[in-house]
Design brief:
Blueprint: H1 2-22, E1 30-41, E2 44-53, E3 58-65, E4 80-83, E5 86-89, E6 100-107, E7 114-121
The structure holds 2-acetamido-2-deoxy-beta-D-glucopyranose.
Keywords: Signal
GO biological process, one term: cell fate determination
Signal peptide: 1-22
Amino acid sequence: MATINNFLCLSLFLIIITQGMAAKCYPGRVTIYQKPTGRRIHHKTEWKVSVANECACMQLNVRLSCAGFHSLRFLSPSVLSKSGNLCIINNNNPISPFSTFNFTYVWDHQFVFAPVSSQEACS
Ligand SMILES: *[C@@H]1O[C@H](CO)[C@@H](O)[C@H](O)[C@H]1NC(C)=O
């Protein structure tokens, strides 16, 4: 009896552990950090955006909400391109596990980007 109980305990424990690990990436963990760089350009603030992949898998096709986003600085489409209300970053290329993709823009005020979607590729 004791061994069966131990077995059940161990199974439950393993299920919790493995689900916890699988849940790491769900729903595509992308976090956006943003801060002023301290530089001013034409009386506007330069902002640095870090799109952090906080997952153990690569994340690609990362989409951010960016309706109304403007930048005085030209952003290369390989860095950020607008598609309707969404911004495509890094030309859809993957962001490595636990790495960041950074870019800067210049505007009066901070623009709040929100992660909308991404795809994960686990190896
Ligand atoms: C992006 O910026 C963060 C914070 O400043 C830095 O830690 C990180 O190394 C940068 N990533 C790249 C790829 O330059």
